[in-house]
């Protein structure tokens, strides 16, 4: 597993002097393909009109239901962000584009990771399992259980050269299985093209107001190997500027971070009916310190009057995501047979200063004032295999049948070390061991699923589907030393889960569709980390959690495709919620009653005149507990679930105008609004309500068939927007809080070329 070591006196990031050389190397690497490109293709690549940003959005093709369909005919509330959408806003991470997706929010936990939330289905920062499944093409990048780091490892992949991102709202348990409790987030990459050479390169330099400077370098080359084979390679280096200072350690811009990685895809078309595609994705993130600042409870005013976080020692870390897949696609006449074989891996190392939590406890025991850090190493890897038969889309009947297998292993190892307050150094050779916890988990699943659709008339059809899943798990925990308490336990578990769905759609006109949908989703249960001394009433395992979704929606286009729209209203009933609770200093998991989320979502695109494009989307989400949570967790019946706003809205406007031969100018603005949100449930004090916010982004630039130059400002008004908060002391709501915030005002210039 990769580890992270911070060299003394450095940030471990690319130096300013090295950046121009790396940019030049990137462009030089692409130069042969760029120079050769005109001989093969002397115009911009031909792509569907909708993906080129034309007003007609009716031809966007998606694979939401594991078959190719027009997005406006899929009976699911979904949002599609294509490559042009992502490139237009200089999207390198979730925070750059999530506002464009109704009903989707983010709970940030600093550099360590993020949790995606759809329709408010979450129990907060320390959720046991992710409620949103993530896919990369045919590969599920999701894990199960607390030691699988399920709620924290949503792979924030750089979307450069992605064909599109599909976000499905509501449970998707029939086709996508575990973790799609609230929805699905799916990356769809560009396949290699054997027909032509293509290449692209982008350079983006930016700076944060009163902070550091950053740079983003991207490149892609598509190389035909023959008329039947091709290779596509993407590489990137993203450096996000720091903006948090720590005067107590004499440091500025401590939260600089980097992402480096890429993708490679190799396609073989063995016949007109048979193809093999091999994919590899690698991304390594490294952060120098937390992106949080110290704030007061209730008011959330910065304690030190600015972007400041003071700790005894730093909180560096690193995380690596890897995805490898082989997909065979074979048209056998009566159906298409697909085989997807995948291996995924996540590995991280992070250091957490917990002096505020453990310092007062340890100092009397150790005989003098000490702080403390937790050094955490964690990882997860999984093998998956799916076989799927998909019938052609017929005039009357269409069907799918599939089988799925997953084998996963995960671990979280935590060691605690004292920190000398006077020298602000970690004492790793202390005379006796403070201790920690080592957790391991295995998970095996086998599933079978199928769907059946029938067209009663050309305008009306229905479909039903079901999935049976069986899983076996083992969970072990070893607590050692002063803090671990000599805990040693092992808890196996096994369960069967059935999920199902049904939908009906009616094409009122060829351009407008109404639909109704009923669907379920789940996250698995598992073995519980319960001390041997715990009473028998504390369960040794916890059950799977399940959602049931009822949805009505409409989507389509009007006025010669100048107006496109999607609207949906829903209710989600959530049963057997999994909640993290404490018993004797050990974190356990409880099933606790239910919750309900109701709301509606909308998305409109309008082109009133040539060159002017307007967008407006948003959601209203009312997610509440139906029953009181256990006293050790907190949360009364009727309380809001944490982490999600009741209202979120965004609007965009872009105007394109001709300037000169082959060049157009453009000016664009985006606005996003989020209403207030609540912190996690609390058993010892009032929950925090962090405030609503509005943010504005501006862009101005030039573009041609090959070149794009953009000047932009993000967060124009320098809004202080909180993503999430966490306590820094055992007093929870009464001590200082650490607030993860969205990046302050940022200025940038981006230049891109495509051949």
List the helices and strands and how they pair.
Elements: H1 19-40, E1 61-62, E2 69-70, E3 78-82, H2 83-88, E4 104-108, E5 114-118, E6 132-136, E7 139-140, E8 162-169, H3 173-176, E9 183-189, E10 198-208, E11 213-226, E12 229-240, E13 257-271, E14 274-287, E15 292-295, E16 317-331, E17 336-353, H4 355-366, E18 370-390, E19 397-420, E20 425-426, E21 436-457, E22 460-480, H5 481-484, E23 488-509, E24 512-523, E25 526-527, E26 541-542, E27 545-558, E28 563-575, E29 578-583, E30 586-591, E31 594-606, E32 612-625, E33 647-660, E34 663-674, E35 677-678, E36 689-690, E37 693-703, E38 707-714, E39 722-727, E40 737-741, E41 746-754
Parallel strand pairs: 6-9
Antiparallel strand pairs: 1-2, 3-8, 4-5, 6-7, 8-9, 10-11, 10-41, 11-12, 12-13, 13-14, 14-16, 15-40, 16-17, 17-18, 18-19, 19-20, 19-21, 21-22, 22-23, 23-24, 24-27, 25-26, 27-28, 28-31, 29-30, 31-32, 32-33, 33-34, 34-37, 35-36, 37-38, 38-41, 39-40
Low-confidence stretches: 1-55, 729-734
Which whole number gives the mean pLDDT? 87
Strand-pairing-aware structural class: mainly beta
* Distance between the first and last residues' Cα: 38 Å
| Helical coverage, percent range | under 10%
Into which percentage range does the β-strand content fall? Answer: over 45%
């Amino acid at each position: 597993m990769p580890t992270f070591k911070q060299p003394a006196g450095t940030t471990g990031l690319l130096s300013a002097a090295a950046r121009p050389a790396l940019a030049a190397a990137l462009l030089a690497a692409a130069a042969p393909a760029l120079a050769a490109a005109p001989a093969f293709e002397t115009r911009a690549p031909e792509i569907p009109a909708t993906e080129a940003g034309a007003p007609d959005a009716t031809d966007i093709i998606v694979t939401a239901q594991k078959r190719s369909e027009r997005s406006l005919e899929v009976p699911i509330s979904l949002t599609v962000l294509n490559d042009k959408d992502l490139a237009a806003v200089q999207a390198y991470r979730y925070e750059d584009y999530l506002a464009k997706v109704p009903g989707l929010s983010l709970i940030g936990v600093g550099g360590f990771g993020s949790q995606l939330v759809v329709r408010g289905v979450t129990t907060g920062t320390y959720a046991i399992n992710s409620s949103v499944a993530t896919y990369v093409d045919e590969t599920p990048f999701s894990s199960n259980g607390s030691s699988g780091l399920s709620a924290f490892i949503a792979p924030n992949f750089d979307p450069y050269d992605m064909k599109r991102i599909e976000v499905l709202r509501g449970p998707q348990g029939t086709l996508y299985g575990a973790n799609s409790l609230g929805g699905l987030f799916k990356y769809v990459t560009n396949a290699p093209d054997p027909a032509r050479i293509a290449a692209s390169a982008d350079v983006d330099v930016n700076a944060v107001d009163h902070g550091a400077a950053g740079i983003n370098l991207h490149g892609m080359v598509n190389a035909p190997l023959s008329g039947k084979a091709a290779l596509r390679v993407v590489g990137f280096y993203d450096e996000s500027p720091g903006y948090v200072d720590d005067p107590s350690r004499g440091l500025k811009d401590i939260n600089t971070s980097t992402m480096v990685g890429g993708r490679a895809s190799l396609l073989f078309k063995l016949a007109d009916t048979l193809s093999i595609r091999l994919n590899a994705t690698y991304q390594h993130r490294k952060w120098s310190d937390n992106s949080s600042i110290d704030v007061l409870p209730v008011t959330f005013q910065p304690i030190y009057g600015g972007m400041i976080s003071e700790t005894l020692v730093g909180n560096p870390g690193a995380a690596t995501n890897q995805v490898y897949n082989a997909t065979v696609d074979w048209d056998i006449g009566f159906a298409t047979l697909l085989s997807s074989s995948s291996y995924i891996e996540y590995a991280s190392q992070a250091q957490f200063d917990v002096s505020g939590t453990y310092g007062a406890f340890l100092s009397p025991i150790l005989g003098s004032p000490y702080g403390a850090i937790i050094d955490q190493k964690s990882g997860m890897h999984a093998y998956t295999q799916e076989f799927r038969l998909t019938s052609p889309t017929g005039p009357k009947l269409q069907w799918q049948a599939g089988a799925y297998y997953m084998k996963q292993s995960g671990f979280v190892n935590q060691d605690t070390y004292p920190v000398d307050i006077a020298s602000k150094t970690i004492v790793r050779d202390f005379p006796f061991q403070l201790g920690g916890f080592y957790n391991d988990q295995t998970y095996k699943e086998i599933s079978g699923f199928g769907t059946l659709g029938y067209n009663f008339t050309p305008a009306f059809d229905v479909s039903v589907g079901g999935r049976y899943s069986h899983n076996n798990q083992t969970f072990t925990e070893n607590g050692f030393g002063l803090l671990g308490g000599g805990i040693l336990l092992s808890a196996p578990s096994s369960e069967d889960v059935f999920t199902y769905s049904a939908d009906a759609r009616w094409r009122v006109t060829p351009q407008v569709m109404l639909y109704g949908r009923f669907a379920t989703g789940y996250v698995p249960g598992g073995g519980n980390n319960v001390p041997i001394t715990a009473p028998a009433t504390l369960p040794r395992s916890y059950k799977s959690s399940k959602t049931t979704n009822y949805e009505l929606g409409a989507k389509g286009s009007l006025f010669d495709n100048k107006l496109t729209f999607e609207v949906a209203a829903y209710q989600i009933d959530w049963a057997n919620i999994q909640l993290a609770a404490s018993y004797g200093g050990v974190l356990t998991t409880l099933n606790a009653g239910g919750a309900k989320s109701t709301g509606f979502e909308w998305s409109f695109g309008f082109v009133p005149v040539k060159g002017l494009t307007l967008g407006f989307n948003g959601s209203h989400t009312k997610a509440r507990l139906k029953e009181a949570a256990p006293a050790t967790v907190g949360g009364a019946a009727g309380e809001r679930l944490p982490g999600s706003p009741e209202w979120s809205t965004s609007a965009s406007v872009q105007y394109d105008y001709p300037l000169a031969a082959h060049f157009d100018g453009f000016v664009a603005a985006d606005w996003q609004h989020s209403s207030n949100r609540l912190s996690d449930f609390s058993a010892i004090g009032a929950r925090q309500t962090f405030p609503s916010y509005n943010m504005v982004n501006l862009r101005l630039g030039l573009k041609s068939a090959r070149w794009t130059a953009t000047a932009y400002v993000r967060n124009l008004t320098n809004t202080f927007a909180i993503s999430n908060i966490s306590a820094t002391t055992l007093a929870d709501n009464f001590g200082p809080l650490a607030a993860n915030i969205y990046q302050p005002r940022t200025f940038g210039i981006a230049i891109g070329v495509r051949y």
